[in-house]
Design brief:
The protein is of the alpha+beta class. It has helices at about 15-20, 25-30, 35-50, 100-115, 130-135; strands at about 5, 55-60, 65-75, 80-90, 120, 140-150, 155-165.
Length: about 170
C-alpha cells in the first residue's frame, strides 16, 4: 500500500479525530492524547505550525488522506541529541506493513536531517504490536520502567527502547 509523509494541514483536524476514534488506540496512548474534536483541532494546529525545531511531526497519508501520524520530540539541554518518537495508525490500515515502512523511512530521515544520536520510545509493556514495530525498525530494549505510568487507576510498566545512530554507539 502506497503512502506519503507530509506536514499536517491546519484544516485536517477532523481527519485526525475520525482516524483516532479507537478504544484500543486510546488504551495504548498517553492520557494527554487528544480525544475530542477540539483537542484534535488544537493538536493539528500545533503540528501544522511547527517549524521542525522542537518536534518533527508528519501525517501518514493514503490517497492523500491522513490515516496516521509519526513524530519525534526533541529533548533539551544535555539531552538535546536525543528525541522521543511517537506514532499511531488508523485501525483499518494496521497489519499491512504500512507502519514498518513509515517507521524505517521516518527514522532514517531524522538521523540524516537532524543532529540526533538516539531516538527512544517508552511503549506500555503490554503494547506488543508497538514493541514489535520498534524492533523491526532497529530499536533495542534497554529495560523496563516498572510502575512508570499511572493510567485508569493503576500503575503500568513501560519498556524503554532506543535506536542509536549506526556507528556511534558508546561502549
Amino acid at each position: 500500500m502506497d503512502y506519503t509523509l507530509r506536514k499536517w494541514n491546519e484544516n485536517e483536524y477532523t481527519d485526525f479525530y475520525h482516524a483516532t476514534i479507537d478504544e484500543e488506540l486510546y488504551q495504548n496512548m498517553r492520557e494527554a492524547f487528544p480525544k475530542t474534536i477540539e483537542e484534535c483541532k488544537q493538536t493539528v494546529s500545533t503540528f501544522s505550525d511547527s517549524n521542525d525545531i522542537t518536534e518533527c511531526v508528519r501525517a501518514i497519508c493514503i490517497n492523500n488522506k491522513p490515516v496516521g501520524c509519526i513524530g519525534v520530540f526533541f529533548d533539551k539541554a544535555e539531552y538535546s541529541r536525543n528525541c522521543e518518537i511517537a506514532y499511531w495508525l488508523n485501525k483499518d490500515y494496521r497489519g499491512q506493513g504500512v507502519m514498518e515502512r513509515v517507521g524505517r523511512e521516518f527514522i532514517d530521515m531524522v538521523f540524516k536531517r537532524y543532529d540526533v544520536h538516539r531516538i527512544y520510545a517508552t511503549p506500555l509493556e503490554k503494547n506488543k504490536s508497538s514493541i514489535r514495530l520498534l524492533e523491526k525498525c532497529g530499536f533495542v530494549c534497554e529495560g523496563v520502567l516498572h510502575d512508570y505510568v499511572w493510567k485508569q487507576g493503576q500503575f503500568l510498566n513501560s519498556a524503554l527502547y532506543a535506536n542509536v545512530k549506526k556507528g556511534q554507539i558508546s561502549e
